[in-house]
Amino acid sequence: MMSPRWHRVLLVTHIASAVGILGADLALLAMGVTGARGADPRTVYPAARLVAEWVMAPLAVPTVVAGVLLAVGAGYGLASDRWLLVKIAVTTLLVVVLLAVVIPALRDAADAALAGRAIAGDQRTRLAAGPAVSSALLLLNATLGVAKPRLRRPHRSTGRAGLTAPRPTARSARA
Is 74 a domain residue? Predict the structure, then answer.
């Protein structure tokens, strides 16, 4: 278990970086919709690329690291609750898609726009739809982190007639 001070530091780091990612994602959504509606691609896509590369990518690391440390340090463990497994899977998926798909797509769109090449309508639509999906997934993660629904995995038996050993919760660990 971690000290209450470190728990607060990690919690603030996790929340602040996740909120920053959500804000940047909503900015990408606004730029993507603007681009899909026919705005000047020389303005939209270079700006979107900067937001993804200079805001979202650097914030992904502290969000993931602080989240994992919170899960381990608060007594949840990384695989004790299904809600936590969902958060980890969604976060991993979002980081991989950001680094392997979104940033390269925005780099290509920005380079094409600055070179005066046309950007296809389906590409513009994808650059608007992606942030919409990822914003919804980020909101799902926020909801799971706050609600912590009782989607527990079955625990080992204590050996007594079907009773299971209780797992510590964040509240009981602080008591």
Answer: yes
